[in-house]
Structure formats: structure tokens, C-alpha cells
Amino acid sequence: MDVYDTIGATYATTRRPDPRIGARVAAALGDASSVVNVGAGAGSYEPPQTVLAVEPSAVMIRQRPARAAPVVQARAEALPLATGAADAVMALLTVHHWADLAAGVAELRRVARRRVVVLTWDAPVFRSFWLVREYLPQAVAFDETRAVPVERLAALLGGARVEPVPVPHDCVDGFAAAYWRRPAAYLDPAVRAGISMLAQTGEDALRPGLHRLAEDLRAGRWQEEHPDLLDREEFDAGYRLVVADL
Ligand SMILES: C[S@@+](CC[C@H](N)C(=O)[O-])C[C@H]1O[C@@H](n2cnc3c(N)ncnc32)[C@H](O)[C@@H]1O
């Protein structure tokens, strides 16, 4: 069974595409007139020129809107597509889940005629995000077992440019750092269920840190410790677009 068949049941409720991040993805895809979306999940950020989505989890496939691109149930490591099948291939917030990164990236390069666009995160930057540094070190310890070093990804892609993707303070896509200025959101089990780092670390390991966060918010300590965050519009938590021209 795929991991997302277990943790993905409510994905589409908290993981809606954020338009500002969508604009960054669209800019990275440039003038590609055909796109394959690998690790497509429920279809977030899929541009209209998407010709095929590839996704291993049936639970995720069921959450794709009726108007979304056609989808095939398969994995990045063995794409059921011809060489050079699309102008561009994109893989967003998915490479850390792949069993064989090198095989998956080789497949992205084989299927893309011109460009590969990957959205990932830089673990050394993410590690300093207040949630994991101050409250949930167990979660970041788990996260770093699967994090893909940006330099390794760029090397596997045969060279790539790396673009920071700051997170807006009201980000509508509820990924791990989306609520950097809305700390109470992490106390909501529905929010945590949509963040694989937290869902896979497990509630028992998270409980003490979440309890402390709740207490600090109630007492105003979190607010006292983070005055710099409260008037910021966006925050660099380490998310990166890695863009390779082939
Ligand atoms: C965090 S979700 C991201 C989904 C979508 N790209 C988005 O941005 O909302 C990660 C997705 O990667 C998929 N995935 C896991 N292993 C995979 C693999 N080996 N090949 C392709 N996709 C995979 C999961 O099933 C899940 O749908």
C-alpha cells in the first residue's frame, strides 16, 4: 500500500494550491506547451497544458477534481511514457517520498524534452523554522531521514538553477511551514494530517511539543519570542524550485 493511501485521505481539505506559489511554478514552466505532472497528488498547481498526471496512490487520485488532467497510477521510478513525451515535466513536493531518487530523476529527464521543474525544500534552512527547532525536533529528525539535498537533486538533473520560494503569511496550501505566522493552526489535527512530516512522525511523539506550544500561545510567550514574525508578509522556510533546462 502506498504511504499516501494511509495519510492522504483528507489531503484536499488543507492542501489547496496557493495562487502565489502557482504563479512561481507557472513561470518556471515557461512556454512549455505540454506538461507531465509526476507525484501529482490531487492535482495542485497543474497548469492547463498538463497532458498527463502520474500518481501512485489511489486515495490521492480519488481527490482529483473532475476537470483535472488524465491520470495514470504509476511511480516516478518507472514512468509509463515515451522518451520526450512532453515539453516539461514537473514534480512538486514529492521527490522526498520516492524509493529511488536517482531512478526517478532519470525518468523525469527521459520524458521531458526541454525542462524539468521540481519543488522541494532545503533541509538546513528548514531546520531553523521555529516549529521544528523549538517544539517538534522529533519531526525534523524524521524529516531529515528523507530530505533530498538540493545540490544532489541539481546534480542528478545535470545542473539546475535554484530559486527560493518564500511562503506567504496566509498561504492556502497547508504544507509544513505554511502556518509560520499562524502558530495555533498546528494544534489542529486536520492541519497536521495534511503535513506528511507530522503525520508520519506520529501523534505520540508530537504530543509534548504541541502541548508546550499550546501553553506558550495561551501565556503569550510565543508572541513575545517571535515579534519579528508578526509583521512579516513572507518567510523563507527553505522551499526551493529547482529548474533544469535539458
Ligand atoms: C505532498 S504530496 C504532493 C502532491 C502534489 N504534487 C502537490 O503539490 O500537492 C506527495 C505525492 O507524491 C506521491 N508519491 C509518493 N511516492 C511516489 C513515487 N515513487 N512516484 C511518484 N509519486 C509518488 C504521493 O502519493 C503524494 O501524492
Automatic annotation (TrEMBL):
Domain of life, source organism: Bacteria
Signal peptide residue numbers: none
Single biological process term from Gene Ontology: methylation
Span of domain Methyltransferase type: 38-115
Transmembrane segments: none
Single GO MF descriptor: S-adenosylmethionine-dependent methyltransferase activity
One Pfam family hit: Methyltransf_11
Keywords: Methyltransferase, Transferase
Protein name: Methyltransferase domain-containing protein
Species the sequence originates in: Dactylosporangium aurantiacum
Lineage of the species this protein comes from: Bacteria, Bacillati, Actinomycetota, Actinomycetes, Micromonosporales
